[in-house]
Amino acid sequence: MPNRALQSSLGASPPIGRPIRLLIVDDSAVARAVFTRMVGARPEFEIAATVGNADAALAFLAGAEVDIILLDIEMPGQDGLTALPALLEASRGARVLIVSSSAEEGAVATLRALTLGAADTLAKPGSSAFGGRFAEILAERLIRIGHAPASAPGKPAPPAPLPRFATRALTSGRVACVAIGASTGGLHALSDLLRSLPASFAAPILITQHLPPSFMSFFAAQIAEMSGRPTSVARNGMVLARGRILVAPGEGHMSVELSGGAPRVRITDQRVDSGCMPSVDPMFASAAEAFGAQTIGIILSGMGRDGLRGAERLAAVGADILVQSRDSSVVWGMPGAVALAGLASAVLPPFQIADLIARRDRAVA
Q1: At 100, is the secondary structure helix, strand, or coil?
Q2: Model confidence, pTM
Q3: What is the DSSP pairing of strand 262-268 with strand 253-259?
Q4: 175 φ, ψ to 5°?
Q5: Of 80, 135, 158, 277, which is the most buried if we count CB atoms within 10 A?
Q6: How many angstroms separate the CA atoms of 250 and 143, rounded?
Q7: At residue 190, what are phi and psi to the nearest 5 degrees?
Q8: 127 φ, ψ (degrees, to nearest 5)
Q9: Chain centroid to CA 89: how far?
Q10: Which of the residues 91, 210, 227, 325 is marked catalytic?
Q11: From the candidates 9, 91, 183, 325, which is the catalytic residue?
Q12: Is 348 left (phi over 0), alpha (psi -120 to 50) or beta?
């Protein structure tokens, strides 16, 4: 997912051991050949197959395992977006990288793909622009996504053992605000979480997702659709209202301040340690200041360590910090950093995070 913090992190290091198995799905024979040439000779990758349409991909996946599917959007028959859910199910754990001329920054198709479960997207250059820097970027994206979880029978290698970490005790009582941070793989996780959250849960929800400014209006519309809650891109001075979701703008950090007795949004653009814009850290730190232990902080799938500093502030005031589990994350960088620092109150898949929040809310109803 595009952001300004393409830093090495948990889940983002080059693979060791077996190569990453790739399935290339593109109706263009030229594109299939070029992608094969770009990554096929590198020791990090193995080309399992190249096919020209989604039906052929599904037939191949019926008898083979891959780690990543490179998927075009515009294809005859089933287009890539229509086929994406079926490919994810048939692959039993593979990640999907959309590589398409439709995957421009800010494109509706790009955000739709991410919401449907694609791990990342990359705009395909024109035929005259293949090669050069694009090959490097493609390899970087594939390495970042890495191996598929070894959950299905026949997977050749289990994931590395999860390091030991301690969790903090869960708290109880009224929830005044939920603050969610996410990056690579976060849109699909957000979809699972928000769709599982009951309509009766009314605390305001803040979301900082690593996306460029051009995505944000589309992102807010997708969040509104998946959550059934009114959603807006945050602006200075907006009041945090019950039942409403606010998302950080792409060009600023979303913070909270108490003004006139009401919690309001403050947008800032200061540099932060993570280098991200927008960053999760100011949102978490300001929510801790405004709401204390009545805040719930959530860290979903993402590359890097953004959110760690803010999580320290939340922990200091006794707030719950709920972290997405490694098996359910595309990249366990951001959640892993918080969990391994001993700051997490629970480490769960997104739908179970929603259930935990709902149970706390019901207990004080």
Answers
A1: strand
A2: 0.79
A3: antiparallel
A4: -100, 120
A5: 80
A6: 26
A7: -60, -40
A8: -55, -30
A9: 19
A10: 210
A11: 183
A12: beta
Q: Which two tokens stand for residue 269?
A: 């653009």
- Residues 266-270, mean pLDDT to the nearest whole number: 95
Q: Give the three-class secondary structure for 290.
A: helix
Q: At a CB cut-off of 8 Å and minimum separation 6, what does 261 contact? A: none
Residue with tokens 């605000």: 177
Mean pLDDT of all residues in the chain? 88
Residues 113, 119, 120, 124, CA torsion sign = negative
Whether 210 is a known active-site residue: answer yes
Of the candidates 306, 320, 328, 361, the residue annotated as catalytic is: 306
Can you give the C-alpha Rg of the chain in angstroms? 20
Closest CA to 356 of 326, 327, 321, 332: 321
Beta-bridge partners for 348: 324
**Helix or strand (DSSP H, E) at 267:** strand 262-268
Question: Alpha helix locations (H) across the chain?
Answer: 29-40, 54-61, 80-91, 108-116, 133-145, 186-196, 216-227, 280-291, 308-316, 333-340, 350-363
The question of whether 13 is a catalytic residue gets the answer no
- Pairing status of strand 95-100 against strand 120-123: parallel
Distances (CA, A) of 301 to 132, 174, 250: 30, 26, 18
Alpha helices in 184-300 (DSSP H): 186-196, 216-227, 280-291
User: pLDDT digit string (tens) for 160-177?
Assistant: 667 788 999 999 999 999
Distance CA 71, CA 184 (A): 17
Spell out the SS3 assignment of 116-164. HCCCEEEECCCHHHCCCHHHHHHHHHHHHHCCCCCCCCCCCCCCCCCCC
- Cβ atoms < 10 Å from Cβ of 159: 15
